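LOG
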Amino acid sequence: MDYFKLLVDYAVFVLPTAAIAYFIIGIRLYRQHAEKKYRYFSGFMFSAASYALGYFLALNANEESYFLAFRSLAYLGAIFVPAFGILFVISFTGLEKFKGLDLLLLSTSALWWLLYVTNPLHHFVYNKLEMAFAGGFSIASTQKNWGYYLIFLYFLIFLLFSMGILFKKMRTAKLNREKRNYRFLLIIMQMSWLGMLIILMGWDTYYDPAAVTILIISGLMGINEVRNDLFDLSVSRWKKTVTWIEEMALLIEGSAEIVAHNQQAEVLMRHFPDQKKLIELLKAGNESLLLNIDDQKCHLTISHAVFNEQRAFDSYILEDQTKKLKAESALKESEEMHRLLVTQMTQGLVVMEVCVKPSGYDLVCLDVNPRFEAVTGYSKNELLGQSVLKTVKVHYSEIEEMIFMVALTGQQKKAEFFSKRLGKYFDLFFYSPRKNECAIVATDISERKSDEQAILYISYHDYLTGLFNRRYFEEELKRLDQPEFLPVSLIMVDVNGLKLINDSLGHQTGDLLLKMAAEIIAKGCCQGGFTARLGGDEFMLVLPKTNEEQAMEIIEKLRGLSSSKNVENSQVSISFGKGTKIIPNEEILAVYRQAKNDMYQQKLYESSSVKNKTINLVMNMLFEKSNREMRHSERVSQLSTLIGMKMDLSPDRVSQIGLAGLMHDIGKMGIEEWILNKKGSLNEAEYEQMKKHPEIGYRILCASEEFEKIAGFVLEHHERWDGLGYPRHIKGQEISLEARIIGVADAYDAMTCDRSYRIGLLREAAVKEIEAGAGSQFDPEIAAVFLTKVLPELID
């Protein structure tokens, strides 16, 4: 066989064709892909094409200068083949840790290419070049130097590095397609060892095996990349169809592996780290799957389609029915809740339909709930499907009109309704669930209305007497201040002695007095008028269309009624004052002031005698309550009078001292009777109550001008000379002389009289107590007068 001829044929036909093909493929790959691996592969193809073209041109060079120039082009491709090959393998396998290596490799390749180009100057690559011509082609033989083997080492590094990475990735790859790609690249690279063997054996004197080797490897890699490109194109097309769908989508190549999925299927991929199990479930042909993903049950329906028969792509769409099933369950639950709401609700519900009949409009009952039956007394069987207008005997025209309006217009309405038949108040809410239908929700508000009426009553009535209060008086007075109500008379009423009775007989007696006075005053009210308690002991009668003479007749009538009434043996005393508005432009407040002034003038005449009578009544009631207190008060009065006389006080002053001594314990009327008559000594709390009687007595006596002066003596009769007394803790001359005298008399009588819890002291012992207390408890001068002048006379 003529090998030389085969070589020449190869050079003539294969090299230029391959070079042109590689240039075209490289350009198309570079233009169509932006990823680094495609750019590096394009560089690899350009380098292979440059090598092939340069080698072809060198074969056709007739002169050595041309031959060297074309060989430089071939060297350019040869030197950059390993650089782009290493970069392609790195990017193809996804190794990101070799950042910056592309600049290093390309710079190194450029330097080595310069080493080749400048070889005639230094002969580092080869020492000599011998050209021969055969069949019109140039054949060169070279004597290689160490620079040539440096490039050889560069190729060796490329092969070893690439094979190591590809072998490692082939073992760790999860996808079969990736393993196949890595295996294919690993196998075709083994062809390089044949070319290297020829070079190492020195069989490349006239023939360079690198060109053939690079052409074959790049060609096979190109075919593989085209296959990968078509594969990725199919996957990309599938991804575009499923990117925006809401369902999970997976693409399976044959029965081997999942090659693509959309974002919605991420949760499914995380749930199945072992893809084989998921593929088995999908390939089983089940129409649905029930999975527990992220602690939640997912109901998935499966749809299968063949995406690409030639490549055996199966597309699976998994629709999550969980939300739909939950929605259906929620709907059922909602319907059940709605049913329970309607049946268990505390409001009555009725649904009616407006029907047009030859006789006119009618209302047909569609549904009622149990509460409506309970409230109205009509059963569901009586109403359902029947004419409401015929079934319900009692008709309410306003309610019927509202039902028709809501059913025909769809507008919502509210109304408050009182059923005379049921004796209840209802809050009605009308709405239209469908066209020509009206539903009524009836809420029983009888209790609320009762509470509102009670609150309204409290707002305008006095809680004690039941009469109207000041708020009602002020609002109603404005309403009656109109010409059509003239003449309007106002009668001001005041209960005399209320404070005194409260202080002396207690607030319960005072309340009883107010209630009795209110009953009397209310009898003076005429038609259209009203009676109000303004506060405390003041009342007002407002009498429209009542002149002054008529008002006076009413006052006389009420005065007569009050004179016949008694509270705790005390006659009810009431003062009256009147004012009448006759002229329309007269201010009603001026009439009010006139009635008040008139009442105060009358009160000046009546109040004093009433108070005096009340105080006398209080004293009598105290003495009736406790016989011991009466005898004690009389003795203290007698002793106080004698002390005053021995101190040469004026007769009037002596008389006041005697009266104060008699009334010094009047405040005990405000103390509980069981404390006054207790058998045994008082405890601390009871004693604190008892200590309040000087203040109570003071307030009682201050109510009357006649007793106002002696009220101070009563207040101070338990004060001590050293300031340790009560209630004000005053001392010495700060205490009135009268109170100091009563204090000595009171103490001596208290010591010498028997009590329920002790026997009284003998006179001698009492004298020693008085002597011991002189200067501390008692005024020493008064104590000396009592012991030296008063007590001896009592002994005689």
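LOG (cont.) second protein
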Amino acid sequence: MRAGRIGRLAAVAATLAVASACGDGGTEPGSPAAAIVPLSLAADSVVIGEAVDPPLSVRVEDALGNPIEGAPVRFALVSGAGTLTPEVAVSGIEGIAEARFTASTLPGSATIRADVPSSPNVEPIDFSVVGRPPDRVLLSIVEGDDQRAEAGTQLPLPFAVRAETPGDRPAGGVTIEFALARDAGPSAVFTAPTFVTGADGSASTLLTLGPAAGEYEVLAYATGVESDTLRFRATATATWDGAVALDSVSAGVLLGGEETVLYGVGFAPDPAGNEVRIEGEPAEVLSVGEGEIRIIVPRFTDVCAPEREVGVRVFAADEASNGRLVPLIPSGTRLTLEPGESTTVRGADAVSCLQLGGGPVDRQYLLGVSTADRRPTRSADLRIRTRTHGSLANPPAVSLAPPEIEAGVEQEAISRARADGALRRSALDALDDASAGVPRPAPRRAAAVPVVGDALGFSFAVGPDRVASCGVVGAPIEATVRAVGRHLVLAEDVTAPAGGFGAPAWERLLAELDGIVAPADTAMFGSPSDIDGNGRVILLFTPRVNALEQPGTARVGGFFLPIDLAATDGEDALTNTTRGACGASNQAEIIYLAVADPDGAAGPARTVEQAIAEARGTTAHELQHLINASSRVSRAGFGSVEVVWLDESLSAVAEELAGLAVAGHTSGANLAFAQVADSRETEATFLAYHLDNFLGLALYMSEPSSPLAAGEPDQAGLVGKGFGWAMLRWIADMGASGPRAIFRDLVGGGANLDRGIENLERVAGAEWTRLVTGAAVAIALDDGGVEGVDPAHAIRSWDVPDILASLTRTRRGIFPQAAARAPALLGAETEAVEFDVRASSVRYFALAPGTDPMSISLSTSDGTRLSVTSEPIITIVRNR
């Protein structure tokens, strides 16, 4: 430690020497700070409970690099545990500010941030300090030595030890082993043969004596670090012959935190003269009567142990009674579920200790853990612990590592993530900058409907950097009408590469997109606007779209731009808008699509079949975006458009509904893979319309704590869209009003044009967290063969596990091998798992306690009680 200190002080001195040579000396107190320079190591370690030496140090500088005196520097603990002194330090004449960080008495890392509150432009600095266990601990006996009790009973006091560092500080996180010395006596049972010391360095266990009289010697020592060995002694007597006798307990059972009566003889008449120990814990004595003591049973909430037999003993005037083993039902949220039943427990107090009683048959449960936090970038570091009656140990928690995703799958997910959301956001930014207005409605007389062979001209608003603007990018697009239907006009850029669509391809596209896809979208989401008065949406196939795509990036198969819904002249805008202009607008309903490009002349190569397949799903997807945006901007301008994550989820539903319509299926049919891919043609339809949704859902199931973009547009990726689609599908399957009413209501936004979470809550009639957890559980339990399961725990339109398993088998290399319903397994023994759960996401756990009682506790990652504001949620379903 001393050598490290000298080295770091030398580094500080060298830094100051350079600064002195380059600058003009110290500045006057109060000069504005431009930067803070770290003088301490960015990452350091220290023995638990000790302070970093030298202190954490920074140097405050002005814009010329001169030290600033008198600048307040704040040192804040942003993660982990420990103490800082002071929390605000004032820089000295050399610009140096210091704070002493003392690590927690438990092992772990901490992050300390230094900043200058008075200068928010100054970039903060983070320091990382790891509190490491000492190489050696010193053990001492706290209580429990030299006890005596009759054979077959539990000793009245625990064997309690304390571990300290060589610096006389508590040593937390140290595993203490308790063991009977060889040939020391008959067999006996510890409540916990191993115990990890807490922040105070203490650990303890109780011993239930064997059936025969004898002498016991109990050893206690640390494992993993060097320590001495402590020795406890206890004696088991053949009989009990004292004057204080404990005969029975009221009702024959103890209830944690409740009053009960102990019956016997020899009790002291004054309540203060009696001490009652239950599993080593003192109980509150309320009163003493003839042959009885009224007490309050300890709650045992600090360990959250399950139902079990505990030792009860009375001390009257320091004389011990005989011991009794009595069943204890601890305090906590008690859950009694039949197969198929579920419940949701919410709040820090409720989830701190859950109790699952035993039963005559093996049981299995699915747990979903989430929080009520709606901020997508936030996550909670949690610990879930299970305990059985066989051991009250607190072993170290194991970190829940996310599953490894195959490289091919990760690349496929990147390549299949659409770039349309980012393009729409940049378009909305451009419209906002231009204060663009919405054009007046077209005249009542219909505009001339294009016919095959007509020439059309269009502006293009997207640059090679994938950013849209209200300025026209490049030359205008000249296109030729290739097909016209009742809903769509298909036009092709005259610069499309050779080898593209021929007449049969255009006929095929028109038949499906105009005859099935567009009617499916409009029936479910409503009709788009008709700014240009031609009664149709234009599908513009142009190599400008192909040119936006680069290998290894999100695909750009097509997109809709809100810019085309803006007025090109402020005088032509509606009076209820800002009446600005957007020169790049086409004032028409347009979806831009990639062309077939077999030789890769305009971008990555696309065969005719690939371009057709992409146009199928993309048209369904982008048409919903157009319908959604046009229904809102016509009423309240571009600031009212739906948030990206919900808009993307609705477009995922549009792809699904179009695919079902093309294949002749309907919602609610619980479709398996064999039903939707029974031929090459039907499989191609499934891949064109449904693959993205199931790939996103499978990635969510592989790592369910991925952010789900609740109100955060930048987070609306493939995973979020996959879950968002499944949630909307589940809501529609459950809704009494039917999918059409639900989706049209979502697109409309209601009277207040609600957006995002508020919009979904309004339509679904349920709180956001209940929707997230309900959908997550339904996904995990779907078609799980659970008898009597609540119908709400299912996706009625799809056999989700069959689809995912089939795709894993048939699309190997681009589909994750981690199947759905593969939650982290919590064993039937005492176990603890640390994990993080992001807002608007759910962590799954499988629990199989068999026939034994089990307790479940949820806490912070360092084992402390959750705060009231954290709003944790556990949904439990008994699936056997």
